[in-house]
Design a protein that fits this description.
This protein is an all-beta fold. About 0% of the residues lie in helices and about 45% in strands.
Amino acid sequence: VQLQASGGGLVQAGGSLRLSCAASGRSGSRYVMGWFRQAPGKEREFVAGITRSGATANYADFVSGRFTVSRDNAKNTVYLQMSSLKPEDTAVYYCAADTSRSENVVRFAVSYDIWGQGTQVTVSS
């Protein structure tokens, strides 16, 4: 399976963006999916993840209710709706798949073995 992230852009603080991650092939719906981000000079960090069915989502503490992860398995697509964006949210955002057939969202990047190419999110103050 291949992942294609899109939807990034430039937005003012307080604004919103919706990121999409399209998985090629029907197997995309079989995996736990995660969103990570990496700012310049910083390590890649977990943002949110969602189970295979979409019933359970897990978020990093810094999200604080501002982001919502969802998925449409019929479209093999995972979304990250981001609201109340802050300048510190500026980063390249990546989607990733955990192909271990786990039922749980794991926050460690090493657990995800398929990655999309990333999409830049820039939040201006």
